[in-house]
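Folding Task

Wanted — backbone structure
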Amino acid sequence: MYDSHVHSENSKDGHDSVQKIADYLPNVGIVSCAITDHCELVKETQFDDVRKRMEKIEAEIEEVNEAKKNNIMFGIELGSAQMDTALAEKIINSFNFDVILGSVHSVPDFDDVYKLREGTDAERIRRVLKSYFDEIKKLVIWNKFDVLTHLWYPVRYINLQEQIFFEFKTEMEEILSLLAQNNKALEVNTKASGKDLTPFILTCVQLFAKNGGKFITLGSDAHYVEDIGYDFNRMIKMLHDCGFKYYVYYKNREPITVQI
């Protein structure tokens, strides 16, 4: 199995070194993973700062791969690239990434969506979700990434009001249809933050398949090595039940199929 979304200590909220991650993979039957540390363009606005951090990550991956004959892949999670496409494209063009994840965590007039967990009334949740899907659509139209990650990100944090997410099924389908038309991948992100997200994952996968989506990646979104590959076997069965014959991982920004 291949985990296409892993964070090292080079992310602010990551905890383990690239070396520790590489050493851990055989313990959970993971052939390889992509180190996809965060680059949040709503906060990281200076190219030189990003460049230094990416160079460090790339060097660490190269060192581990050379010493252990591993094949750890070099990726990035570009957050809110649609807000500064010039900087995003400069970053993309400056490194030999294997995979670029596109994500949205923050929305205008609210900050990071995770703050919904602090307790928010239903109407405000609806306003934030509307803004969230608007930003995701802009990201998908920009279309310079490989994988759309955790489309259901807000559901991690909507306390007792998760069903509001389904009110935006039309917006989700429009996004997933565009993603499919662009031959981009949808990530099945298994980070659950303590709750079962299966109904939300399943809805997105079904809408993606309905609209011609072909490429699915598996990503644990691990910030600790113990979470790498979390729940992959169950998600692979779900994908099979939805009609997918394979999932993919990316090398040199090209999808490589893994039969299910």
The two ends are 10 Å apart (CA to CA). The chain has a mean pLDDT of 95.
